Every structure is written in structure tokens, then in C-alpha cells.
Amino acid sequence: AVFRLGGILRNVGNQLAVGGHTDPVPPENSIFPSNWELSLARAGSVANELNRAGYADSIYAFGFAAGRFADIADVAALNGDTAYEAARRVDIIVLQTVQGGY
After folding, report:
1. pTM of the model
2. Is residue 14 within 8 Å of residue 97, measured between CB atoms?
3. Cα separation values, 7 from 57, 59, 65, 70, 96, Å
4. Nearest CA among 31, 95, 90, 35 for reference residue 67
């Protein structure tokens, strides 16, 4: 799905950003010492896949860790997911293009 999306987004002239998220449970027995590193790795992985799919511009990648966990609880309930499942995600953001290059 990410590869297909990258193929579509390569035709868009806007800059992209990818934000990674986690649930609030600290990672155990993981190569990631904290939720921040895990969320950043998620974002970086998706950004790399978008590049492999043909999106040629640089992509901003950042990690929220579990900082927005409370925001997702209500949305998750509407979709039948638990908040923990919904929190393990990335957001792909198409940034607004500014005329004149600034």
C-alpha cells in the first residue's frame, strides 16, 4: 500500500512529511530503547519506502512516540479498534506548497 501511494505521490509537487506514533507501553526486548526511537523508525521506514516507490524529493520524518495517544482513543472506538492498535501508526502529511519558493 505504501509503495502504491509513493507512486501516486511522486506526481504531486508538494513536500511530504511522515510522523510516526506508538502506544504508551515502553518497548521491551526491542532494539529500540524508547517509544520515541520506535516512532522515528516507523516514520523513517515509511519515508524510505515512499522514496523507493518514486517520490524523489526529501521527506521530513519525525517521531511523536505516544504523545498523541489520547487524541486517537475516540477515533479508534468509532472504527472498532482499540486505542493501542490505532496508536501504532504513521501519518503521511502532504505539506502546502508556497508560491515563490518561500
Report:
1. 0.80
2. yes
3. 13, 14, 28, 33, 19
4. 35
Q: Which amino acid is at 81?
A: D
Characterize the bridge pairing of strands 90-94 and 59-63: unpaired
Nearest Cα neighbor of 96 from 6, 4, 9, 16 is: 16
Tens of pLDDT along the chain (102 residues) come to: 888 888 888 888 889 999 999 888 888 877 999 999 999 999 999 999 999 999 988 999 999 887 766 666 666 665 666 777 778 889 999 998 766 555
Please, how many CA atoms are within 13 Å of residue 4, restricted to the half-sphere of its CB?
Answer: 1
Nearest to 51 by CA among 7, 1, 95: 7
Which residue type sits at 36? W
- The whole-angstrom separation of Cα 40 and Cα 38 is 5
